[in-house]
Amino acid sequence: MPTLQSCPSYIHQRNETWPHEQSLQTKLWGTLEELQLTCSFIEATHLMV
């Protein structure tokens, strides 16, 4: 999922969602709160998963 980590098109949304760098593992298999952030990012960017 490079989009979650480095896609330049979503840099603003990514920085807004995760102000501090997070690992891909945290974004996909983290706590409930971390997964809610990932879902918010996906919804805000209209990504298809």
What's a concise summary of this model?
The protein has 49 residues and is mainly alpha-helical.
- Mind summarizing the main beta sheet? none
Basic shape = globular
Mean pLDDT: 93
Query: Structural class given helices, strands, pairing?
Result: mainly alpha
| Low-pLDDT residue intervals, each spanning 5 or more residues | none
Which H/E pattern describes the elements? HHHH
* Percent in helix: 55-70%
Figure out the total of helices: 4
β-strand percent reads under 5%
Radius of gyration: 10 Å
Please explain how this structure is put together.
The structure is a single chain. This protein is mostly helical. It has one domain (2-45). It has four helices and no strands. It has helices at residues 2-5, 11-17, 24-29, 32-45. The protein is globular and about 25 Å long.
Annotation keywords:
globular
Give the topology.
Layout: H1 2-5, H2 11-17, H3 24-29, H4 32-45
